[in-house]
Specification:
single chain; about 80 residues; mainly alpha; 2 domains; about 85% helix
Length: about 80
């Protein structure tokens, strides 16, 4: 039974190390690709605004969809850019 506890502890430690490495990688990516991060932030802001909207006119909905499509297009384009740094 003691080995079970040790293996669970090891598993938890491994997960924590993986999470820490992932967070470090995300931070490096943010610093290296600020334009990409800015686009994602803009997209998330737009999604939050859209989700708070209660009464949609057809025109407002079309505009919101067009805005999100524009942002997503930019995100896709930026995501495919290979950095040569």
């Amino acid at each position: 039974m003691a080995s079970k506890g040790a293996s669970k502890g090891d598993e938890a430690k491994d997960k924590a190390e993986i999470k820490a490495r992932d967070e470090e990688q995300e931070e490096r990516d943010r610093r290296m690709r600020p334009r990409f991060r800015a686009l994602i932030d803009e997209m998330l802001d737009q999604i939050r605004r859209v989700s708070r909207e209660q009464d949609w006119t057809a025109e407002a909905r079309l505009q919101a969809e067009a805005d999100l499509e524009r942002i997503m297009s930019q995100v896709r384009r930026e995501a495919t850019i290979r950095r040569r740094d």
